[in-house]
């Protein structure tokens, strides 16, 4: 890391190796003061094609639904959309990341220690990711091993317009076991730099990260941005201008990254965001769980992703 980058991070109050401690202490504070509203779930596994899917069943969504309804009520009164990130809730603030990004706890978290990496200034969620976005991602991912992801547009599961990436620590399963996303490269067949998983009947593309070694977050971000451009091209998303030309999900671990273009946000009322393509699905009712078992998790993903014939 260059001396300039070190000085910039010191000015931001950033100290490498301290993120996890800040996350845990801020979580304790946010729970105590009520700023963090964790959503309880039950879970079970649904298997298909050698893939094990963690399926969470929401048991209590009332507080989140009421908050959304209240936000919509205020928006109608004001005649404009509200932004929960400008200003952000200081009780959820974890730390500054860079001149362009900061880190917050996810207020309505299902997974413990769920982080948001948001832009300081407003940017639309449906704009392409930048080198600065990937720098923020690596500043977190290098310190916390987990899954970073981006819901690119409402059809990909985005619920807020203000641009934000997210990160959930491994393991994703409450019992400590792993999901396939944690070893993503073991499942993929590669043709050059682009890989695909043969069992997935929908359009997607995977790239591996070279070992980072002593690479700075800035260097890792530059490499990741180039791979991101290659993945977008591989799945048929044309990068034209600042605004994305189609909805997509992006998932990244320390090993590699996957992009999945989307056709719609939900199927038969079951919503799917990036976590679904990592093997972690969410249903609201027992009826939705039974439907999921009937069509199969991969069938659900196929229904909301883009088919190869349309890419």
- Beta-strand level of the residues, as a percent range? 15-25%
Structural class: alpha+beta
Helical residues, percent: 25-40%
Number of strands: 15
Question: Which outline best applies?
Answer: globular
Describe the structure in your own words.
- The chain has 311 residues and is of the alpha+beta class.
- Helix content is 28%, strand content 23%.
- The strands form 4 sheets. Strands 3-4-5-7-6-11-12-10 form an 8-stranded antiparallel β-sheet.
- Helix 4 (131-141) crosses helix 5.
- The longest helix has 18 residues, at 217-234.
- Residues 1-8 have low confidence and may be disordered.
Throw out a few tags for this protein.
single chain, 311 residues, alpha+beta, 8-stranded antiparallel sheet, 3-stranded mixed sheet, disordered N terminus
SSE topology sketch:
Blueprint: H1 3-11, H2 19-33, E1 41-48, E2 51-58, H3 62-78, E3 93-96, E4 101-105, E5 115-119, H4 131-141, E6 146-152, E7 164-169, E8 189-191, E9 194-196, E10 205-208, H5 217-234, E11 248-252, E12 256-261, E13 266-267, E14 270-271, E15 280-283, H6 286-295, H7 297-304
Parallel strand pairs: 2-15
Antiparallel strand pairs: 1-2, 3-4, 4-5, 5-7, 6-7, 6-11, 8-9, 10-12, 11-12, 13-14
Helix pairs in contact: 4-5
